[in-house]
Amino acid sequence: MIRTIDDIDLSLDDAQAVGVICNFIVDQFHKKGFYAAVIGLSGGLDSALGVAVAAEALGPRHVTALAMPSAESSKASLEDARLVAKQCGVRLLVEPIDSMEHALFDGTTGVDRVRIGNAAARFRMIRLFDHSHRHHALVIGTSNKTELLLGYGTWYGDLASAVNPIGDLFKTQVREMASFLALPQRIIDKPPSADLWPGQTDEGEIGYDYETIDKLLYLLVDREFSLEATLGVGFKETMVRDIIRRVTASQFKRSLPAIPKISLKTVGIDFHLARDWGH
Are residues 33 and 40 in contact, defined by beta-carbon separation less than 8 angstroms? Predict the structure, then answer.
């Protein structure tokens, strides 16, 4: 019975969850006929966990990590990426995206930080999918459940991937699993950040801490609590309404592009096949 916020327990059976994720990765790769993976490694917690589970599932020699710093990226992030790659035994390629940013924005005035951040995320995904094509390697995503629900990510940027093994883990569960897998403590402890500009943090942008967000999302999504029920547990109405707004407003990022219905069977409306149909 959930009576207060403190009653909400998001802890995992980590060994079992890691097993499920690794089996999922192996199954997805075999169904699609791939044996190699490529993943963006930013030096942050989510991508570190993505690399760790991919290496565990496929073997380190089948996983390539790409660090893709921009002019705005901190040097510490690249150092942390190297640390994770070394610990997990995967190959790390460093491919900066500065030249791509310069080609887009040089001579352009009034470019705000959101535009730059979105472009950086999409440039990184261009590099990942280009590597995917050249080396017959599936792109592994690193967006957690909290980010997916809030829409906290760039459409066709960091939200794009072929397989996303951590997509059903709330951010706090990502941290828990990273601890279970003994990833570097400094990466587990540092404030979550997309590293889009100096001093940028996820929680600073969103306005709430991840532990509180995750507990609220668990009630709203997993347990299907009403707004009134979440208030009864102890959440503030302003936060609940804001989170509901974010989840609702970002639904387009979790869906196929809208298509008008003209034919008998329309893709995404009444033509639905299993993702692995034909394999």
Answer: no
Confidence band (pLDDT; 50, 70, 90) for 24?
Answer: very high
- In tens, the pLDDT along 125-152 reads 999 999 999 999 999 999 999 999 999 9
Q: Is the pLDDT of residue 276 over 80?
A: no
Picking from 164, 12, 187, 194, the residue whose alpha carbon sits closest to that of residue 88 is 187
Whether residue 72 lies inside any domain: the answer is yes
Q: Which helix (H) or strand (E) holds 65?
A: strand 63-67
Structure tokens at 87: 């610990």
Q: Please work out, in degrees rounded to the nearest 5, the angle formed at the alpha carbon of residue 267 by the alpha carbons of 265 and 269.
A: 75
Q: Work out the angle at residue 248's Cα, subtended by the Cα atoms of residues 122 and 219, and round it to the nearest 5 degrees.
A: 110
CATH code of residue 66: 3.40.50.620
Domain count, the chain: 1
